[in-house]
Amino acid sequence: MEAATKLVLQPKKTRSGDRLMETLMYIWAAFMLLIVLYPLYFIVIASFSDPSAVGNGKVWLFPKGFTLDGYKELLRHSNIWIGYRNTILYTVVGTAIGLVVNISAGYALSRKDLVGRKWLSLFFIFTMFFNGGLVPTFMTIRDFHLYDTVLVMVLPFSVAVFDIIVARTFFRTNIPQELWEAAQIDGCGNLRFYVQIVLPLSKAIIAVLALWFAVGQWNAYFNALIYLQNKNLFPLQLILRDILVTNQMQTALGTGEAAQIALRLSNLLRYSVIIVATVPIMCFYPFVQKYFNKGVMVGAVKE
Amino acid sequence: MHTQKGVRSLINSIWSANRQTFARIGRNWGLYLLLLPAVVLLICFTYKPMYGVIIAFKDFKPTLGIMGSPWAGFKYFEKYFHSYQFSVTIKNTLVISLYSFATFPIPILFAIFVNQLRENRFKRVFQTVTYMPHFISTVVIVGLMLILLSPGNGLIGSVYRLFGAEAPNLMGSPGLFSSVYVWSDVWQHTGWDSIIYLAALSSVDPSLYEAATVDGASRWQKIRFIDIPMLIPTAVTLLILRVGGLLGVGFEKAFLLQNNLNISGSEVISTYVYKIGLISSQFSFSAAINLFNTLINFTLLILVNWVSKKYTENSLW
């Protein structure tokens, strides 16, 4: 009898403590949401607001002095659209190349009957921790005549060793060796097995790596900064850098009323250009998010 | 004649000793074909530049080529060690990386907290939102910071004025640079970085929690005695990787955040290497600084991995 009351009483006591903790957790989560979302929300409403109201701190929850001038100004900047076009090109081609190169390598390395597997893995992993550095790499790119070409944005740096390891672990846990043995008995070669059986079974890892490559390409500016000179090849991020960071708009300004208007527009342009550059990737990623569990989490942890 | 015979017999003996191995390689030729693109790309664009590293020990002249340029020994390393920029760049790099190192537990705490949210739909929305900043490009993030953190007409200026105070110039002071750098990183990546820990937590056997509940464990006790021990192996692995990059403060963000006002607090090794190498074309000098940096990182990595292997059974290899 005494034991029974104890059993009933004790969970009750802890439950009240748990409930307090639960409430605290939700307050914490709401606070986190606010910290992440508000700056982003602020940019959205600022892009529709009168820039002087933004500057005076009058814009908090809703746009003030609604205007579309920022977006209209955006349409006038042809280099933004050239950048957009280039970025889409680099993202599509770069992602395709990256997937082919890394997923194939990841699969080959996952096979236990690959002779020299240890050495080959080391060959890849070593590059994660040691590299030639900026200047020797720059010289190499020039020697291959890739400087200032479209190719430099999609080919030379498409091997991502971390992704290969993730893919390898995925294949190891999801494609049983017996499957290959059975296919082999039926007279199936390695390449056909890979294309017709392995790839269709691996949509999750393909989706995740595709997302990583696409996001990486969409957001990249370092290689463009170093290896591109021709403005017609610049990706969006490099154009954005001019507008957002080095603020080249203002250097073209004189004084007087025209300059005032130009300054007003350039501030507005900065908000709208952030929206236009970021929205595509934001729309894309929630669709792939459901694969995160299956894909990344499987084995990124060890090995 | 004689040597030719010798070579042939050598090849023969290698062949017969390894016939089985060669046969196995031949049978799986398709796998090597799959590896080929990645291997070729790495040889061309990662291993070939490693050979180029020797220009750090040479007086490299583009017209003479790597081999033709005269040797310089450790001249450029000494030049760096004795330069005014040596202590500045090392200090800034160390401060920023140790500072961000200190934020290492934040994603772990974040994952533990998220794991406590029971309402599934809320949890999903919460994760979607907190991962979001990770997908914003560095350029846009820096642009955002310049807009929002401007003391004059930025959001932070407005917030300070609301309380009748003057906002600090976060982007323009060398002393605050590391804080700006590190906390904006925390803002951007904490949600995303917690994924891996959430994965580790989702693999906890539910019966462990049930058993703990029966024993009358509180939520806090479950975190303390189940969740945290589950996360340690993952955390150690990631920690080792982080140490390997200790002196590797990335170029991308530091370079964008730099301006004339904060330069004495924002010049890190990678931005300095870029300026020396590609802006002022001192190839050998830049390569030497770069190599020095890489070697320190590499040594640290090996050291920490060794220590970890010895004391915690967790290691990268």
Automatic annotation (TrEMBL), chain A:
Gene Ontology cellular component list: plasma membrane
InterPro entries referenced in this protein's UniProt entry, alphabetically: MetI-like, MetI-like_sf
Residues covered by the ABC transmembrane type-1 domain: 84-274
Entry-linked SUPFAM superfamilies: MetI-like
Keywords: Cell membrane, Membrane, Transmembrane, Transmembrane helix, Transport
Subcellular location: Cell membrane
GO terms, biological process: transmembrane transport
Membrane-spanning parts: 23-48, 88-107, 119-138, 150-171, 191-215, 268-288
Listed name of the protein: Carbohydrate ABC transporter permease
PROSITE patterns: ABC_TM1
PANTHER family (UniProt xref): ABC TRANSPORTER PERMEASE PROTEIN MG189-RELATED-RELATED (PTHR43744), POLYGALACTURONAN_RHAMNOGALACTURONAN TRANSPORT SYSTEM PERMEASE PROTEIN YTCP (PTHR43744:SF9)
CDD domains: TM_PBP2
UniProt lineage: Bacteria, Bacillati, Bacillota, Bacilli, Bacillales
Chief place where the protein resides: membrane
Record membrane topology: Multi-pass membrane protein
Protein's UniProt keywords contain Transport: yes
Top-rank taxon, per record: Bacteria
TrEMBL record, chain B:
PROSITE patterns with a match to the protein in the record: ABC_TM1
Database matches in CDD domains: TM_PBP2
GO cellular component: plasma membrane
Presence of keyword Magnesium: no
Protein's membrane topology: Multi-pass membrane protein
Biological process, per Gene Ontology: transmembrane transport
Domain ABC transmembrane type-1: 89-304
Gene3D superfamilies: MetI-like
UniProt family annotation: Belongs to the binding-protein-dependent transport system permease family.
The protein's name: Sugar ABC transporter permease
